[in-house]
Write a structure and sequence with these properties.
globular; 6-stranded antiparallel β-barrel; 23 strands; alpha+beta
Length: about 600
Protein backbone atom coordinates (compact mmCIF):
# COMPACT_ATOMS: atom_id res chain seq x y z
CA UNK A 1 0.00 0.00 0.00
CA UNK A 2 2.80 2.37 0.93
CA UNK A 3 4.57 1.56 -2.28
CA UNK A 4 1.41 2.29 -4.28
CA UNK A 5 0.92 5.63 -2.52
CA UNK A 6 4.50 6.69 -3.25
CA UNK A 7 4.14 5.63 -6.89
CA UNK A 8 0.99 7.75 -7.18
CA UNK A 9 2.73 10.74 -5.67
CA UNK A 10 5.96 10.31 -7.66
CA UNK A 11 5.28 8.22 -10.73
CA UNK A 12 8.60 9.15 -12.37
CA UNK A 13 10.84 8.52 -9.42
CA UNK A 14 12.76 5.25 -9.90
CA UNK A 15 14.92 5.71 -6.81
CA UNK A 16 11.74 5.80 -4.67
CA UNK A 17 10.71 2.30 -5.80
CA UNK A 18 14.07 0.90 -4.84
CA UNK A 19 13.92 2.55 -1.46
CA UNK A 20 10.30 1.61 -0.62
CA UNK A 21 11.23 -1.69 1.09
CA UNK A 22 13.77 0.06 3.24
CA UNK A 23 11.18 2.01 5.19
CA UNK A 24 9.34 5.32 5.16
CA UNK A 25 12.19 7.64 6.14
CA UNK A 26 14.36 6.44 3.27
CA UNK A 27 11.49 6.84 0.83
CA UNK A 28 10.84 10.39 2.03
CA UNK A 29 14.56 11.23 1.72
CA UNK A 30 14.62 9.77 -1.80
CA UNK A 31 11.48 11.72 -2.65
CA UNK A 32 13.05 14.94 -1.38
CA UNK A 33 16.17 14.20 -3.39
CA UNK A 34 14.05 13.50 -6.46
CA UNK A 35 12.16 16.81 -6.04
CA UNK A 36 15.45 18.75 -5.92
CA UNK A 37 16.87 19.47 -9.38
CA UNK A 38 19.83 17.29 -10.16
CA UNK A 39 23.02 19.47 -10.38
CA UNK A 40 24.86 19.46 -13.67
CA UNK A 41 28.64 18.89 -13.81
CA UNK A 42 29.06 22.32 -15.44
CA UNK A 43 28.59 25.50 -13.29
CA UNK A 44 26.46 27.40 -15.84
CA UNK A 45 23.00 26.98 -14.22
CA UNK A 46 24.32 27.57 -10.69
CA UNK A 47 26.93 30.26 -11.51
CA UNK A 48 24.88 32.44 -13.86
CA UNK A 49 25.08 35.50 -11.60
CA UNK A 50 28.76 34.88 -10.96
CA UNK A 51 29.41 34.78 -14.69
CA UNK A 52 27.52 38.09 -15.07
CA UNK A 53 29.67 39.62 -12.32
CA UNK A 54 32.75 38.22 -14.06
CA UNK A 55 31.61 39.80 -17.32
CA UNK A 56 31.12 43.18 -15.63
CA UNK A 57 34.53 42.82 -14.00
CA UNK A 58 36.11 42.11 -17.37
CA UNK A 59 34.57 45.29 -18.72
CA UNK A 60 36.20 47.34 -15.91
CA UNK A 61 39.74 46.02 -15.91
CA UNK A 62 39.89 42.67 -17.81
CA UNK A 63 41.65 40.57 -15.16
CA UNK A 64 41.27 36.81 -15.60
CA UNK A 65 41.75 35.76 -11.99
CA UNK A 66 38.38 36.64 -10.30
CA UNK A 67 36.30 35.03 -13.11
CA UNK A 68 38.51 31.92 -13.03
CA UNK A 69 38.11 31.60 -9.26
CA UNK A 70 34.32 31.78 -9.52
CA UNK A 71 34.24 29.10 -12.24
CA UNK A 72 36.57 26.85 -10.29
CA UNK A 73 34.54 27.16 -7.08
CA UNK A 74 31.22 26.52 -8.82
CA UNK A 75 32.71 23.58 -10.76
CA UNK A 76 34.13 21.97 -7.61
CA UNK A 77 30.80 22.30 -5.79
CA UNK A 78 28.89 20.82 -8.76
CA UNK A 79 31.35 17.91 -9.00
CA UNK A 80 30.84 17.16 -5.31
CA UNK A 81 27.04 17.23 -5.78
CA UNK A 82 27.28 14.92 -8.80
CA UNK A 83 29.46 12.46 -6.85
CA UNK A 84 26.99 12.41 -3.95
CA UNK A 85 24.04 11.85 -6.32
CA UNK A 86 25.84 8.99 -8.02
CA UNK A 87 26.49 7.46 -4.66
CA UNK A 88 22.78 7.72 -3.77
CA UNK A 89 21.78 6.21 -7.09
CA UNK A 90 24.09 3.27 -6.53
CA UNK A 91 22.66 2.60 -3.06
CA UNK A 92 19.09 2.79 -4.33
CA UNK A 93 19.76 0.55 -7.35
CA UNK A 94 21.29 -2.12 -5.16
CA UNK A 95 17.97 -2.38 -3.30
CA UNK A 96 19.69 -3.39 -0.14
CA UNK A 97 22.03 -2.03 2.51
CA UNK A 98 21.25 0.10 5.45
CA UNK A 99 18.70 2.92 5.23
CA UNK A 100 21.21 5.03 7.16
CA UNK A 101 23.57 5.01 4.16
CA UNK A 102 20.76 6.17 1.89
CA UNK A 103 19.94 8.96 4.34
CA UNK A 104 23.59 10.03 4.50
CA UNK A 105 23.84 10.01 0.72
CA UNK A 106 20.75 12.20 0.44
CA UNK A 107 22.20 14.60 3.04
CA UNK A 108 25.40 14.71 1.04
CA UNK A 109 23.45 15.67 -2.10
CA UNK A 110 21.62 18.47 -0.26
CA UNK A 111 24.86 19.76 1.28
CA UNK A 112 26.62 19.61 -2.07
CA UNK A 113 23.79 21.63 -3.65
CA UNK A 114 23.96 24.24 -0.86
CA UNK A 115 27.76 24.26 -1.10
CA UNK A 116 27.59 24.84 -4.84
CA UNK A 117 25.13 27.72 -4.38
CA UNK A 118 27.17 29.23 -1.52
CA UNK A 119 30.37 28.94 -3.56
CA UNK A 120 28.73 30.59 -6.51
CA UNK A 121 27.33 33.37 -4.29
CA UNK A 122 30.72 33.87 -2.60
CA UNK A 123 32.47 33.99 -5.94
CA UNK A 124 29.89 36.50 -7.19
CA UNK A 125 30.30 38.73 -4.10
CA UNK A 126 34.07 38.49 -4.26
CA UNK A 127 34.14 39.30 -7.96
CA UNK A 128 31.79 42.24 -7.41
CA UNK A 129 33.88 43.57 -4.50
CA UNK A 130 37.11 43.26 -6.46
CA UNK A 131 35.50 44.90 -9.48
CA UNK A 132 34.38 47.80 -7.27
CA UNK A 133 37.84 48.12 -5.68
CA UNK A 134 39.47 48.06 -9.11
CA UNK A 135 37.08 50.76 -10.34
CA UNK A 136 37.90 52.93 -7.29
CA UNK A 137 41.64 52.41 -7.81
CA UNK A 138 41.30 53.29 -11.48
CA UNK A 139 39.37 56.45 -10.59
CA UNK A 140 41.99 57.45 -7.97
CA UNK A 141 44.82 56.75 -10.43
CA UNK A 142 43.08 58.85 -13.08
CA UNK A 143 42.56 61.72 -10.61
CA UNK A 144 46.20 61.52 -9.45
CA UNK A 145 47.40 61.41 -13.05
CA UNK A 146 45.25 64.42 -13.88
CA UNK A 147 46.55 66.32 -10.85
CA UNK A 148 50.18 65.45 -11.57
CA UNK A 149 49.67 66.34 -15.23
CA UNK A 150 48.22 69.70 -14.22
CA UNK A 151 51.09 70.29 -11.83
CA UNK A 152 53.63 69.25 -14.43
CA UNK A 153 51.98 71.50 -16.97
CA UNK A 154 52.25 74.46 -14.60
CA UNK A 155 55.88 73.69 -13.81
CA UNK A 156 56.52 73.06 -17.49
CA UNK A 157 55.56 76.67 -18.21
CA UNK A 158 58.99 77.47 -16.81
CA UNK A 159 60.95 76.39 -19.86
CA UNK A 160 63.42 79.27 -19.62
CA UNK A 161 66.19 78.07 -17.28
CA UNK A 162 68.82 80.63 -18.28
CA UNK A 163 70.79 82.07 -15.38
CA UNK A 164 69.22 85.12 -13.77
CA UNK A 165 71.35 88.10 -12.65
CA UNK A 166 70.42 91.26 -10.76
CA UNK A 167 72.36 94.34 -11.89
CA UNK A 168 72.31 97.51 -9.79
CA UNK A 169 73.38 100.76 -11.48
CA UNK A 170 75.15 103.00 -8.96
CA UNK A 171 77.25 106.16 -9.07
CA UNK A 172 77.27 109.89 -8.46
CA UNK A 173 74.38 112.23 -9.34
CA UNK A 174 74.12 112.97 -13.09
CA UNK A 175 76.61 110.27 -14.06
CA UNK A 176 74.00 108.92 -16.50
CA UNK A 177 72.63 105.89 -14.64
CA UNK A 178 68.97 106.21 -15.69
CA UNK A 179 69.94 107.11 -19.27
CA UNK A 180 72.21 104.06 -19.38
CA UNK A 181 69.41 101.79 -18.09
CA UNK A 182 67.00 103.29 -20.64
CA UNK A 183 69.50 102.71 -23.45
CA UNK A 184 69.90 99.05 -22.43
CA UNK A 185 66.10 98.62 -22.43
CA UNK A 186 65.85 100.29 -25.84
CA UNK A 187 68.64 98.32 -27.53
CA UNK A 188 67.32 94.98 -26.21
CA UNK A 189 63.85 95.72 -27.60
CA UNK A 190 61.95 96.14 -24.32
CA UNK A 191 60.51 99.56 -25.28
CA UNK A 192 58.49 100.19 -28.45
CA UNK A 193 59.04 103.10 -30.80
CA UNK A 194 55.73 104.80 -30.04
CA UNK A 195 56.54 105.02 -26.33
CA UNK A 196 59.94 106.48 -27.14
CA UNK A 197 58.36 109.17 -29.32
CA UNK A 198 56.09 110.11 -26.42
CA UNK A 199 59.08 110.37 -24.04
CA UNK A 200 61.04 112.45 -26.55
CA UNK A 201 58.13 114.87 -26.93
CA UNK A 202 57.70 115.13 -23.16
CA UNK A 203 61.42 115.79 -22.61
CA UNK A 204 61.45 118.43 -25.36
CA UNK A 205 58.54 120.28 -23.73
CA UNK A 206 60.58 120.53 -20.51
CA UNK A 207 63.72 121.66 -22.38
CA UNK A 208 65.49 118.45 -21.32
CA UNK A 209 65.91 116.71 -24.65
CA UNK A 210 68.73 114.45 -23.45
CA UNK A 211 66.58 113.08 -20.62
CA UNK A 212 64.15 111.10 -22.78
CA UNK A 213 65.99 107.79 -22.18
CA UNK A 214 65.92 108.35 -18.42
CA UNK A 215 62.11 108.60 -18.59
CA UNK A 216 61.98 104.86 -19.29
CA UNK A 217 63.19 104.22 -15.74
CA UNK A 218 62.06 107.42 -13.96
CA UNK A 219 58.30 107.08 -14.18
CA UNK A 220 57.37 109.43 -11.30
CA UNK A 221 56.49 113.04 -12.16
CA UNK A 222 58.66 114.38 -9.34
CA UNK A 223 61.66 112.41 -10.64
CA UNK A 224 61.09 113.69 -14.18
CA UNK A 225 60.69 117.30 -13.07
CA UNK A 226 63.86 117.31 -10.97
CA UNK A 227 65.84 114.96 -13.18
CA UNK A 228 66.81 112.92 -10.10
CA UNK A 229 65.97 109.30 -9.35
CA UNK A 230 64.35 108.89 -5.93
CA UNK A 231 63.05 105.32 -5.76
CA UNK A 232 64.88 102.28 -7.12
CA UNK A 233 63.67 101.69 -10.67
CA UNK A 234 63.14 98.09 -11.77
CA UNK A 235 63.06 96.59 -15.25
CA UNK A 236 63.81 93.29 -17.00
CA UNK A 237 65.67 92.36 -20.15
CA UNK A 238 67.34 89.26 -21.53
CA UNK A 239 69.97 88.11 -23.98
CA UNK A 240 70.51 84.76 -25.65
CA UNK A 241 72.51 83.49 -22.68
CA UNK A 242 71.04 85.08 -19.53
CA UNK A 243 68.09 86.93 -17.99
CA UNK A 244 68.64 90.22 -16.16
CA UNK A 245 66.86 92.50 -13.72
CA UNK A 246 67.94 96.15 -13.81
CA UNK A 247 67.90 98.05 -10.52
CA UNK A 248 68.33 101.80 -11.12
CA UNK A 249 69.54 103.20 -7.78
CA UNK A 250 69.29 106.92 -6.86
CA UNK A 251 72.61 108.78 -6.82
CA UNK A 252 71.73 111.67 -4.50
CA UNK A 253 73.09 111.45 -0.97
CA UNK A 254 69.61 112.11 0.49
CA UNK A 255 68.35 108.86 -1.01
CA UNK A 256 71.17 106.53 0.04
CA UNK A 257 68.77 104.37 2.14
CA UNK A 258 66.78 103.73 -1.06
CA UNK A 259 70.02 102.89 -2.85
CA UNK A 260 70.89 100.39 -0.09
CA UNK A 261 67.48 98.71 -0.50
CA UNK A 262 68.21 98.27 -4.21
CA UNK A 263 71.84 97.20 -3.90
CA UNK A 264 71.06 94.49 -1.34
CA UNK A 265 69.12 92.63 -4.09
CA UNK A 266 71.97 92.76 -6.61
CA UNK A 267 74.59 90.24 -7.75
CA UNK A 268 76.47 92.60 -10.06
CA UNK A 269 77.15 96.30 -9.64
CA UNK A 270 77.53 98.69 -12.58
CA UNK A 271 79.41 101.73 -11.28
CA UNK A 272 78.64 104.53 -13.75
CA UNK A 273 81.37 107.18 -13.94
CA UNK A 274 81.09 110.46 -15.85
CA UNK A 275 84.24 111.09 -17.89
CA UNK A 276 83.32 114.74 -18.41
CA UNK A 277 85.90 117.18 -17.04
CA UNK A 278 84.99 118.18 -13.51
CA UNK A 279 82.13 115.69 -13.04
CA UNK A 280 84.35 112.69 -12.28
CA UNK A 281 86.39 114.76 -9.80
CA UNK A 282 83.22 115.96 -8.02
CA UNK A 283 81.88 112.43 -7.63
CA UNK A 284 85.16 110.95 -6.50
CA UNK A 285 86.21 113.66 -4.04
CA UNK A 286 85.52 113.37 -0.34
CA UNK A 287 81.77 113.46 0.14
CA UNK A 288 81.07 112.34 -3.46
CA UNK A 289 78.68 109.45 -3.97
CA UNK A 290 81.05 107.46 -6.20
CA UNK A 291 83.12 106.47 -3.17
CA UNK A 292 80.20 105.73 -0.87
CA UNK A 293 78.27 103.74 -3.48
CA UNK A 294 81.26 101.56 -4.34
CA UNK A 295 81.84 100.86 -0.65
CA UNK A 296 78.18 100.13 0.03
CA UNK A 297 77.94 97.83 -2.97
CA UNK A 298 80.74 95.62 -1.66
CA UNK A 299 79.21 95.62 1.82
CA UNK A 300 75.79 94.68 0.48
CA UNK A 301 77.08 91.61 -1.35
CA UNK A 302 77.82 92.86 -4.87
CA UNK A 303 80.62 90.47 -5.80
CA UNK A 304 81.47 91.77 -9.31
CA UNK A 305 81.78 95.38 -10.39
CA UNK A 306 81.62 96.74 -13.94
CA UNK A 307 82.93 100.30 -14.13
CA UNK A 308 81.15 101.99 -17.04
CA UNK A 309 83.09 105.13 -17.99
CA UNK A 310 80.22 107.11 -19.50
CA UNK A 311 80.06 110.32 -21.57
CA UNK A 312 83.19 109.46 -23.55
CA UNK A 313 81.64 111.34 -26.50
CA UNK A 314 81.57 114.62 -24.53
CA UNK A 315 83.43 117.55 -26.19
CA UNK A 316 85.78 117.72 -23.17
CA UNK A 317 86.78 114.06 -23.66
CA UNK A 318 86.32 113.04 -27.33
CA UNK A 319 87.13 109.34 -26.62
CA UNK A 320 90.49 110.28 -25.13
CA UNK A 321 92.57 107.29 -24.02
CA UNK A 322 94.46 109.49 -21.54
CA UNK A 323 91.26 110.47 -19.73
CA UNK A 324 90.13 106.82 -19.61
CA UNK A 325 93.45 105.68 -18.12
CA UNK A 326 93.44 108.56 -15.63
CA UNK A 327 90.04 107.45 -14.29
CA UNK A 328 91.20 103.82 -14.09
CA UNK A 329 94.35 104.76 -12.15
CA UNK A 330 92.42 106.85 -9.63
CA UNK A 331 89.62 104.33 -9.09
CA UNK A 332 91.62 101.09 -8.88
CA UNK A 333 93.36 101.77 -5.50
CA UNK A 334 90.08 102.89 -3.93
CA UNK A 335 88.20 99.80 -5.15
CA UNK A 336 90.99 97.62 -3.81
CA UNK A 337 90.59 99.38 -0.45
CA UNK A 338 86.85 98.60 -0.55
CA UNK A 339 87.67 94.89 -0.77
CA UNK A 340 87.48 94.18 -4.50
CA UNK A 341 90.13 92.16 -6.31
CA UNK A 342 90.73 94.64 -9.14
CA UNK A 343 92.16 92.00 -11.52
CA UNK A 344 89.38 89.42 -11.05
CA UNK A 345 86.29 91.25 -9.77
CA UNK A 346 86.46 94.60 -11.61
CA UNK A 347 86.20 95.38 -15.34
CA UNK A 348 86.32 98.80 -17.02
CA UNK A 349 84.44 99.65 -20.21
CA UNK A 350 84.29 103.04 -22.05
CA UNK A 351 80.92 104.00 -23.55
CA UNK A 352 78.33 106.61 -24.41
CA UNK A 353 74.92 105.82 -22.89
CA UNK A 354 73.04 108.58 -24.72
CA UNK A 355 74.16 107.45 -28.18
CA UNK A 356 74.35 103.73 -27.29
CA UNK A 357 78.01 103.43 -28.32
CA UNK A 358 79.70 100.25 -26.98
CA UNK A 359 76.52 99.16 -25.15
CA UNK A 360 75.19 96.36 -27.35
CA UNK A 361 77.60 96.64 -30.28
CA UNK A 362 81.33 97.24 -30.10
CA UNK A 363 82.62 100.74 -30.68
CA UNK A 364 83.69 101.66 -34.21
CA UNK A 365 87.51 101.41 -34.50
CA UNK A 366 87.48 104.68 -36.44
CA UNK A 367 85.95 106.42 -33.40
CA UNK A 368 87.98 104.66 -30.72
CA UNK A 369 90.98 102.77 -32.13
CA UNK A 370 92.59 102.06 -28.73
CA UNK A 371 89.70 99.96 -27.30
CA UNK A 372 89.19 96.58 -28.99
CA UNK A 373 87.70 94.60 -26.10
CA UNK A 374 84.10 93.43 -25.52
CA UNK A 375 81.12 95.78 -25.31
CA UNK A 376 78.94 96.09 -22.17
CA UNK A 377 76.39 93.32 -22.86
CA UNK A 378 79.10 90.91 -24.05
CA UNK A 379 80.92 91.40 -20.74
CA UNK A 380 77.69 90.66 -18.82
CA UNK A 381 77.06 87.45 -20.78
CA UNK A 382 80.65 86.28 -20.25
CA UNK A 383 80.53 86.57 -16.44
CA UNK A 384 81.01 83.28 -14.53
CA UNK A 385 77.88 81.63 -13.05
CA UNK A 386 76.89 82.34 -9.46
CA UNK A 387 76.50 79.71 -6.74
CA UNK A 388 72.88 80.02 -5.59
CA UNK A 389 72.88 77.39 -2.78
CA UNK A 390 69.67 75.74 -3.98
CA UNK A 391 70.00 72.99 -1.37
CA UNK A 392 70.19 75.43 1.57
CA UNK A 393 67.14 76.43 3.70
CA UNK A 394 64.93 78.96 1.90
CA UNK A 395 65.41 82.63 2.88
CA UNK A 396 63.46 85.54 1.32
CA UNK A 397 63.95 89.03 2.84
CA UNK A 398 60.86 91.13 2.09
CA UNK A 399 61.49 94.50 0.44
CA UNK A 400 57.93 95.64 -0.24
CA UNK A 401 54.32 94.57 0.39
CA UNK A 402 50.88 95.56 -0.87
CA UNK A 403 47.32 94.31 -1.38
CA UNK A 404 46.28 92.93 -4.75
CA UNK A 405 43.42 90.40 -4.45
CA UNK A 406 45.25 89.23 -1.34
CA UNK A 407 48.57 89.93 0.39
CA UNK A 408 51.53 90.23 -2.00
CA UNK A 409 55.19 90.66 -0.99
CA UNK A 410 58.28 91.35 -3.10
CA UNK A 411 61.84 90.25 -2.50
CA UNK A 412 64.81 88.27 -3.67
CA UNK A 413 65.19 84.56 -2.89
CA UNK A 414 68.66 84.62 -1.32
CA UNK A 415 69.06 80.84 -1.13
CA UNK A 416 67.06 77.63 -1.42
CA UNK A 417 63.88 77.14 -3.45
CA UNK A 418 60.46 78.81 -3.07
CA UNK A 419 57.67 76.36 -4.00
CA UNK A 420 54.04 77.24 -4.65
CA UNK A 421 51.60 75.65 -2.16
CA UNK A 422 54.23 75.05 0.55
CA UNK A 423 53.99 76.31 4.16
CA UNK A 424 56.53 78.87 5.42
CA UNK A 425 57.25 80.96 8.52
CA UNK A 426 57.28 84.77 8.42
CA UNK A 427 59.88 86.13 10.83
CA UNK A 428 60.38 87.74 13.33
CA UNK A 429 56.69 87.36 14.32
CA UNK A 430 56.69 83.63 13.48
CA UNK A 431 53.42 83.81 11.52
CA UNK A 432 52.56 80.63 9.61
CA UNK A 433 51.72 81.36 5.97
CA UNK A 434 51.04 79.44 2.76
CA UNK A 435 52.44 80.53 -0.61
CA UNK A 436 49.45 80.80 -2.96
CA UNK A 437 51.29 82.01 -6.06
CA UNK A 438 54.82 82.87 -7.20
CA UNK A 439 55.32 85.46 -9.95
CA UNK A 440 58.59 85.98 -11.83
CA UNK A 441 58.83 88.85 -14.34
CA UNK A 442 54.99 89.13 -14.38
CA UNK A 443 54.68 85.40 -15.16
CA UNK A 444 53.33 82.82 -12.71
CA UNK A 445 55.70 79.94 -11.97
CA UNK A 446 55.50 76.87 -9.73
CA UNK A 447 58.98 77.32 -8.26
CA UNK A 448 61.57 80.09 -7.84
CA UNK A 449 65.29 79.55 -7.23
CA UNK A 450 68.01 81.47 -5.39
CA UNK A 451 68.94 84.84 -6.86
CA UNK A 452 65.55 85.52 -8.45
CA UNK A 453 63.41 88.58 -7.68
CA UNK A 454 59.85 87.39 -7.12
CA UNK A 455 56.38 88.53 -6.16
CA UNK A 456 54.73 86.12 -3.73
CA UNK A 457 51.04 85.95 -2.85
CA UNK A 458 50.59 84.84 0.77
CA UNK A 459 47.62 83.22 2.48
CA UNK A 460 46.56 83.48 6.17
CA UNK A 461 48.10 86.91 6.81
CA UNK A 462 47.22 90.58 6.28
CA UNK A 463 49.55 93.07 4.62
CA UNK A 464 49.26 95.22 7.78
CA UNK A 465 51.15 92.50 9.71
CA UNK A 466 54.14 92.64 7.36
CA UNK A 467 56.96 95.20 7.25
CA UNK A 468 59.97 95.54 4.94
CA UNK A 469 62.82 93.64 6.55
CA UNK A 470 60.71 90.63 7.54
CA UNK A 471 62.08 87.31 6.29
CA UNK A 472 60.13 84.42 4.77
CA UNK A 473 61.82 81.24 6.01
CA UNK A 474 61.30 77.53 5.42
CA UNK A 475 59.39 75.84 8.25
CA UNK A 476 61.85 72.96 8.75
CA UNK A 477 64.92 75.12 9.35
CA UNK A 478 63.74 78.47 10.73
CA UNK A 479 66.06 81.47 10.59
CA UNK A 480 67.23 82.92 13.94
CA UNK A 481 65.53 85.94 15.52
CA UNK A 482 67.73 88.03 17.86
CA UNK A 483 68.24 91.45 19.41
CA UNK A 484 71.94 91.20 20.23
CA UNK A 485 74.88 89.86 18.21
CA UNK A 486 78.65 90.05 17.93
CA UNK A 487 80.10 91.53 14.75
CA UNK A 488 83.33 92.42 13.03
CA UNK A 489 83.25 96.10 12.07
CA UNK A 490 85.39 98.37 9.91
CA UNK A 491 85.12 102.03 10.91
CA UNK A 492 85.13 103.78 7.53
CA UNK A 493 84.83 107.44 8.37
CA UNK A 494 83.37 108.98 11.52
CA UNK A 495 81.57 112.32 11.65
CA UNK A 496 83.68 115.39 12.38
CA UNK A 497 81.83 116.22 15.60
CA UNK A 498 81.66 112.53 16.70
CA UNK A 499 85.19 111.38 15.98
CA UNK A 500 85.32 108.74 18.77
CA UNK A 501 83.67 105.32 18.42
CA UNK A 502 83.05 103.59 21.76
CA UNK A 503 80.44 101.68 23.78
CA UNK A 504 77.15 103.58 23.80
CA UNK A 505 77.50 104.90 20.23
CA UNK A 506 74.09 104.99 18.49
CA UNK A 507 73.53 104.55 14.74
CA UNK A 508 71.15 103.13 12.13
CA UNK A 509 71.73 99.48 11.22
CA UNK A 510 71.06 98.60 7.56
CA UNK A 511 70.95 94.83 7.06
CA UNK A 512 69.30 93.45 3.85
CA UNK A 513 65.97 95.37 3.91
CA UNK A 514 66.09 96.20 7.64
CA UNK A 515 66.71 99.75 8.85
CA UNK A 516 66.78 99.62 12.66
CA UNK A 517 68.22 101.81 15.39
CA UNK A 518 71.06 100.16 17.28
CA UNK A 519 73.64 100.88 19.94
CA UNK A 520 77.12 99.53 20.64
CA UNK A 521 77.07 97.56 23.91
CA UNK A 522 80.83 96.98 24.16
CA UNK A 523 84.00 96.74 22.10
CA UNK A 524 85.43 93.24 22.54
CA UNK A 525 88.73 93.51 20.62
CA UNK A 526 90.70 95.43 18.01
CA UNK A 527 92.07 93.61 14.94
CA UNK A 528 95.49 94.33 13.47
CA UNK A 529 95.01 95.07 9.74
CA UNK A 530 98.33 93.52 8.70
CA UNK A 531 98.37 90.32 10.78
CA UNK A 532 94.62 89.89 11.38
CA UNK A 533 95.24 89.07 15.07
CA UNK A 534 92.87 90.24 17.79
CA UNK A 535 94.10 92.29 20.73
CA UNK A 536 93.98 90.55 24.10
CA UNK A 537 92.65 93.62 25.84
CA UNK A 538 89.45 95.25 24.54
CA UNK A 539 89.91 98.90 23.49
CA UNK A 540 88.13 101.75 25.28
CA UNK A 541 87.49 103.56 21.99
CA UNK A 542 88.66 103.63 18.34
CA UNK A 543 88.90 106.18 15.52
CA UNK A 544 88.30 106.14 11.75
CA UNK A 545 90.01 103.30 9.89
CA UNK A 546 90.03 100.84 12.80
CA UNK A 547 88.89 97.21 12.52
CA UNK A 548 87.18 95.89 15.66
CA UNK A 549 84.85 93.25 17.03
CA UNK A 550 81.95 94.54 19.08
CA UNK A 551 78.54 93.61 20.48
CA UNK A 552 75.58 95.40 18.89
CA UNK A 553 72.04 95.56 20.26
CA UNK A 554 68.91 96.63 18.38
CA UNK A 555 65.63 97.87 19.85
CA UNK A 556 63.36 95.25 18.26
CA UNK A 557 63.77 91.62 17.23
CA UNK A 558 65.31 91.18 13.80
CA UNK A 559 65.89 88.12 11.62
CA UNK A 560 69.58 87.70 10.75
CA UNK A 561 72.12 84.91 10.24
CA UNK A 562 75.85 84.63 10.77
CA UNK A 563 77.95 85.60 7.75
CA UNK A 564 79.19 82.00 7.37
CA UNK A 565 75.66 80.54 7.35
CA UNK A 566 74.10 83.04 4.93
CA UNK A 567 76.24 85.98 3.72
CA UNK A 568 73.23 87.93 2.46
CA UNK A 569 71.66 87.97 5.94
CA UNK A 570 74.99 88.40 7.72
CA UNK A 571 76.47 91.64 6.33
CA UNK A 572 75.41 95.11 7.42
CA UNK A 573 76.14 98.84 7.25
CA UNK A 574 76.13 101.43 10.03
CA UNK A 575 74.99 104.94 9.10
CA UNK A 576 74.78 108.06 11.21
CA UNK A 577 73.29 111.41 10.20
CA UNK A 578 73.05 110.38 6.56
CA UNK A 579 76.62 109.15 6.28
CA UNK A 580 78.09 105.63 6.20
CA UNK A 581 80.40 105.25 9.21
CA UNK A 582 81.03 101.49 9.26
CA UNK A 583 80.57 98.19 7.46
CA UNK A 584 80.62 94.78 9.07
CA UNK A 585 79.58 91.14 9.19
CA UNK A 586 77.79 89.09 11.86
CA UNK A 587 80.10 86.66 13.68
CA UNK A 588 77.91 85.25 16.44
CA UNK A 589 74.25 85.42 17.55
CA UNK A 590 74.04 85.98 21.30
CA UNK A 591 70.38 85.41 22.15
CA UNK A 592 68.69 82.82 19.99
CA UNK A 593 66.02 81.14 22.13
CA UNK A 594 63.94 80.14 19.10
CA UNK A 595 66.62 79.82 16.42
CA UNK A 596 66.55 76.77 14.20
CA UNK A 597 63.41 75.35 15.77
CA UNK A 598 61.27 73.56 13.18
CA UNK A 599 57.55 74.20 13.11
Amino acid sequence: EKKTEIEKKNPATPPAEAAADKGEPAAEQAATQAEAPKPEPTPEPKGEEASEAADSWEEVSQPSQPSGEADAAAGAAAAAAAAATARTDESSAAGGGDSKEVSEAADAVAKASLSAKASADAAEVKAAEEAEEAAEEAAEAAAAAKKSTAKKTKAAERTDLREHLNCVFIGHVDAGKSTFCGQVMLTTGQVDERTMQKYEKEAKEKNRESWFLAYIMDTDEEERAKGKTVQVGRAHFDTDKKRYTILDAPGHKNYVPNMIAGACQADIGVLVISARKGEFETGFERGGQTREHALLAKTLGVRLLLVAVNKMDDPTVEWSEERYKEIMEKLSPFLKQCGYNVKKDVQFVPMSALKGTNVMKRVDPALCPWYTDQCFLEILDALPPTDRKTGAPMRLPIIDKYRDMGTVVEGKVEQGELVEGEKYILLPNRDKVVVEAVSLDEEDVAKAFGGENVKVKLKDISDEDIKPGFVLSCAKNVAPVVRRFEAQLIIVELLEHKSIFSAGYGAILHLHAIAEECSIVELTSQIDKKTGKKSKKPPMFVKSGAVITCIIEVEQNICIETFDACPQLGRFTLRDEGKTIGIGKVLKLLDTPEAGKAE
